[in-house]
From TrEMBL:
GO terms for biological process: proteolysis. The keyword Ligase does not apply. Belongs to the peptidase C1 family. This is Peptidase C1A papain C-terminal domain-containing protein. It comes from the Eukaryota. Residues 52-295 form the Peptidase C1A papain C-terminal domain. Keywords: Signal.
Amino acid sequence: MAKILFLASIMLLSFYLTEQTIISDVGTIMLEVGENVDKNARNPRYVLDTKVHKEFDARKRWPKCKTIGEVLNDGNNLYSWAYANAAIFSDRKCIATNGVFNQFLSTEELISCSGIKAIENGISKGGVDQLRVWEYFKSHGLVSGGKYNTDDGCQPSKILPIGNLPTTLYKPECKNRCYGNKTIDYNHDHSKVSHKYKISYEDIQKEVQNYGPVSVQFFLYYDFYLYRNGVYSKTENSKFVRWQYAKLIGWGVENGVDYWLLVNSWGKEWGQNGLFKIKRGTNECSIETAIYAGEPERK
Ligand SMILES: *[C@@H]1O[C@H](CO)[C@@H](O)[C@H](O)[C@H]1NC(C)=O
């Protein structure tokens, strides 16, 4: 019952949102700004594994880092870009510090303070320039911040999870202090990256198995809401909703079909406990074209 209500609520909400903004031709998708920015001087602390594994799951490779497999809930708003990118930054910092840092960085600070906003209409709906996100991680950094309705970290999420009736409207409001765990010093809590880059299709696997999960964007179609298991590929006439972002944590082969393994941000009720598999190697829903990551600062 909870599951049906949940599905009904995400589908109705998206239907409402799409009807509000009739998909029109706003021209090309302006998401590819800048290429391979400062991808050099990698930290020698990483032990490089250049042979691509047939199957890979970052949760098993770095079992100490609990954020890798944790499923967040973006409220089915236009904020999955923030959830995916902040989460992979958290995972990568955990991997880089060998588990000393082991918590989420704040989606809330990213959404409310960076000034970055998803495009609201047309074919680019839901899209952001991910290099701007990583530029923000580099110049400003991100404080810690856990899930909705917790006091975990400096600035925990304020976005109501999917399926909850709104009690207040979410209004991003930038705060220069810690409102979650108030004993944390806001100014000293920021984590930064030393560099950021776009990853080409050929480099995805090596990147993930050596440095941790990456953030991907893909076209979200209606049939994706109904995904439960198996390897997703779009059904012929499914309607476009918007861009969606998710965290790519691995890959494998199922019944002869190559797939990517990803963590979505629609809670654990959706998909395979919040995760999904999508066809790999054919640029399904454009998922192999705009992939980003960065390297946490050495400290
Ligand atoms: C709050 O943060 C402090 C400093 O990082 C930490 O020692 C403490 O355990 C945290 N408290 C809670 C309840 O998480």
